[in-house]
Amino acid sequence: MEPIPRTALILGVAGLLPFVWGAATALSPGLAGWGGRFMGPLFIGTYVSLTYGTVILSFMSGVLWGFATRATGPEAAVGYILSVAPALWAFFMVNGTPGDAAVNLFAGFVGLLMLDWHFWKMGTAPDWWLRLRVGLTAVVLACLAVPIAL
């Protein structure tokens, strides 16, 4: 079993910081006040979680597109079609009330994990990919549970 490359792990964990920050500032008025004073209202609470989550789903579409390029024939065509799903989901579904948008974003990340599994199973994603994605997705879903619960 191939280990997760150190750089991929570090960048993946670093990419969780806006989700963790959003959940923390949604739960702590004091932290939200401090963050709002220094960074502004766009970088605290549910707003940062939803905005950043939308960006990440779109980014992950590009990653999946890259995996699709490793396939051939009908498998490649299906891969390309599936790869755009996270970005389209984010564009069309992450809207409405913050709670509804968070539910849809949560569902988008669950769907993304299924797509990660698909590309990993096809052999177009690296051997270590699913191990990385399961851990990262678990943290993202826990953080998105905060605006859903609020």
UniProtKB/TrEMBL annotation:
Domain of life according to the entry: Bacteria
UniProt keyword annotations, A-Z: Membrane, Transmembrane, Transmembrane helix
Ranges annotated as spanning the membrane: 38-65, 77-95, 101-120, 132-149
The keyword Transmembrane helix is annotated on this UniProt entry: yes
PANTHER family: TRANSMEMBRANE PROTEIN 69
Name of the protein in question: DUF3429 domain-containing protein
Species per Swiss-Prot/TrEMBL record: Pseudotabrizicola sediminis
